[in-house]
Specification:
By secondary structure, the chain is an all-alpha fold. It has helices at residues 2-43, 47-51, 65-71, 76-104, 112-121, 129-138, 146-149, 156-168, 171-179, 184-195, 197-213, 216-221, 230-239, 241-251, 267-283, 285-301. It has 2 domains: 2-72 and 240-285, no CATH class; 76-226, MetI-like (MetI-like fold, Orthogonal Bundle), CATH 1.10.3720.10. Helix 4 (76-104) packs across helix 13. The chain starts with a helix and ends with a helix.
């Protein structure tokens, strides 16, 4: 009887711990989700109420005119095209370079340790913005779309993750391929790439998020408005929201000038609407790579 009571008490304790864990996880999830929910309900609520900070938990005076007006602002679609292009091309280039360099740093390469240490050193030492800008200018990467892509191709952090993952792959796979006469590129493309897909997906997430969220390179390198990224336009909106509300109103037609206060554009509605437009696309990337992410980051971060 004592043993059975002890088991019942232990089982009850386990259930209580489980309930507490679920409560904590739900609260943490709500804390993470609420900012996005708050922004969204303010974009579809009456703009006069949103500007006064009245909308906290439930939308009021629901309408979608903010999105219609935001999508009619000049340059938004061009900026979206630039952001999508740099994200896709930059991610593909970064993943390919990280996978190849991570693999090569595990091979018998001439002065491999020297090159690896020089690459790692760039994580800790930086010349600064001015030398970086002068380098980019001398390479003719100002007002050039490739200024978004080329500097981000080699990321030391991503290469280190990939190298560690490659080192966890059994060496016998490569040795068997070498016995069959496979060369370095054949081993990399046919043996390693299928095996290291988890870490490649992890690097893809990191690269895509960095490329999509970047705006400082646009600020420093681009004066051509056709090369502005979506994040840079958001940066401008956050700094000039008061004047841009007039732009949104005028670009949506003359009727908006006489619209009711509940649907007329405000600085708050412009900021929050464009924020949703910018954030939602990159959020859709995570479900695609989620099944690879945990395995890739765990195996790639800790050897053994």
């Amino acid at each position: 009887m004592k043993k059975s009571k002890t088991k019942m008490k232990q089982s009850f304790g386990d259930r209580m711990v489980g309930v507490c864990c679920y409560i904590i996880f739900i609260l943490c999830a709500l804390v993470c989700v609420y900012p996005f929910y708050y922004i969204f309900i303010n974009t579809i609520s009456a703009n006069d109420l949103s500007a006064r900070g009245v909308i906290l938990f439930w939308p009021q005076g629901i309408h979608f005119k903010n999105y219609v007006s935001a999508l009619q602002i000049d340059g938004l679609f061009q900026a979206t095209f630039i952001s999508v292009s740099r994200t896709v091309i930059g991610t593909v280039c970064t993943v390919g370079a990280s996978a190849f360099l991570g693999f090569m740093f595990t091979q018998d390469v001439w002065h491999r340790k020297l090159w690896y240490r020089m690459m790692v050193a760039t994580m800790y030492f930086n010349a600064g913005i001015i030398p970086w800008y002068l380098t980019m200018m001398n390479l003719h990467l100002t007002n050039n779309f490739w200024g978004y892509i080329l500097p981000a191709i080699v990321s030391p952090f991503n290469v280190i993750l990939t190298k560690t993952f490659v080192e966890s792959v059994p060496r016998e796979l490569q040795e068997a391929a070498e016995i069959d006469g496979a060369g370095t590129m054949t081993i990399f493309t046919r043996i390693m790439v299928p095996v290291i897909k988890p870490i490649m997906a992890t690097v893809a997430i990191f690269s895509a998020v960095n490329q999509w969220n970047a705006f400082q390179d646009t600020l420093l390198l681009m004066t051509n408005t056709k090369l502005y990224s979506l994040q840079f336009i958001l940066y401008q909106y956050l700094n000039q929201a008061s004047s841009l509300k007039a732009l949104a109103n005028s670009s949506s037609g003359g009727n908006s000038l006489a619209a009711a206060a509940s649907t007329a554009q405000t600085a708050t509605s412009v900021r929050m609407t464009v924020t949703i437009i910018v954030v939602v696309p990159i959020m859709l990337v995570y479900p695609i790579f989620q099944k690879y992410f945990v395995k890739g980051i765990m195996v790639g971060a800790v050897k053994g």
